[in-house]
Structures are given as C-alpha cells and as structure tokens.
Amino acid sequence: MTTSIAHLGPPGTYAEQATVFYANWLVNKTGIETVLCPYPSIAQSLQAVAQEQTQLAVVPVENSIEGSVTMTMDTLWQLESLRIQLALVMPIAHTLISYATDLDGIKTVYSHPQALAQCQGWLEMFLPSVQLIPTNSTTESLQQLESNRTAAVIASSRAAQLYNLPILANGINDYPENCTRFWVVSKADADTNYYISSAGASHTSIAFSVPKNVPGALLKPLQVFAQLGINLSRIESRPTKRSLGEYLFFVDLESDVATPQMKSALADLSSYTEILKIFGAYNVLSISPL
Description:
Layout: E1 2-8, H1 14-30, E2 33-39, H2 42-50, E3 56-63, E4 67-68, H3 70-78, E5 82-91, E6 95-98, E7 108-111, H4 113-118, H5 120-126, E8 131-134, E9 151-155, H6 157-162, E10 167-170, E11 179-187, E12 203-209, H7 219-227, E13 232-239, E14 247-253, H8 260-269, E15 275-286
C-alpha cells in the first residue's frame, strides 16, 4: 500500500520538509510507503485531497511569529469533505540564498509572504532598500538565482543543499523560537484512520459562523466551552466573504471530540451558531530538523 501526500512545492519548501518527516514517521509506525506530490499552492494541495488526486495533504496552518496561514483556513472552510488527522510542529530557520558576494549587491529578495514577514526586522536592518517580491513558496524563485546575481531568496538551508546554491546569511528570522504548525489532512470518509493513538486525540478543531453580529454573539458559544471546562488553545476570526463585518471563528480545543464533555459542548453550540464545522480530532507531533 502506498499513500500519496500533497504539499506546497517545488521541493525544498518547509511544507515538503514537514511532509518528509511525516512520511518517515508513517512508514515506521505502519509500514505504509508514501509518494510526495508537490503542488503550486496550499489551496491546490487541499483541493488535491478533496478531488481524490492524493490521499493526504500536509499544509501549514499557524506560525509562532506571523500567526495563521489564512489560505489554509479559508480553503478548509470552503471544502466540505476534509478532516484533520494529525498536527506537526516544526522549527523554522530562514537563510538568505544568493550568488551575490555580499549584501550590498542585492537588489531584490523573493520568498513566500510568511517568510518575508518572519524576517521583516532583519531585512529592514541589513537590506532596507531592496525590493521584496512575494512568491507562492519559498523555493519558487531559487532556479532564477544563477542568472540574476543581484537577487536573493529566503528559504531553508535544506533548500540550498537540494539546489546546490550558496547561502549568504543564516538564521535571519527575527525571533529564534520560530515554529510552524502543519496539519495532515485527509478526506472525511477515508477508510484508513491510524493517525490517532489508542489513547485518543489531544485536540479538536472546529469553525463556526454566528447568526447575527450582535452583542454576545461570540460570547455565548465560548461560554459553552468555559462552563464544561474545555480549554481553547487558539481562536481566530476570518471574514465570511459575504458582507463587511461578518466573520467566521476558527477554534482549537484541548479535548478529544469523542469525550462526553465535547459531545455535550457541540450539541449546545449548535443553538448559538449559524454554521458549525468539525474539522477533526488529532494529536500533535514535534518535528526535529532534517
């Protein structure tokens, strides 16, 4: 049996690094071999699972410096058929990759918007006059560097090794404790479910909209969890894209969806929400750098 896994490409992205870790973990845990399938965007990685082009996707959801990855959240809300199987937490260390001989020779810096934001302070200090150009991934522009000696890319040291490119500066992220959380996502009706331990899941992720933007509209759903002693590890709002001032709320809970408290909470929550989606119950694995 071989499992196909979608991830943001080209090879060398942090998403691919997380996927490689997960693929190794999976084969050690279950004996199941994997094949990695790079896609041009996070949304396309998730759509690949929904359209059964792949069985799984590994996508970033949250960074400790820059917060939520909105494309992941928005796409997960739009696609009805997906569920979270596992979370992976990976440390992120950015490098500046370029053929320039020194920083003074750099005129443009390319990278994913999250990576550019995570290095904003460093860039303002050492490259205050360069043009910052966002790309679909940290590795998308690496192959252009040899023909443009005034360009640089923010990516991982692993990416530099894969493409045999020179590193001009290491550890350029603004905060040393820089981590990204990824979700392993499958179709909700997938037959195989070997990602949660026999002890159950440690987290559940949901999202909901409220019927009206009135006082207490958010308070009432949150009180449901407080009264049952269920801790929220994250809450994030995103626009519904229907009308200005209307929001969806994404919530991570430190509880298994199968517990009596969570079952009771979700039953009560339906009274205060317009749309309620349960994305999945899962455990969290920490990743060591490759």
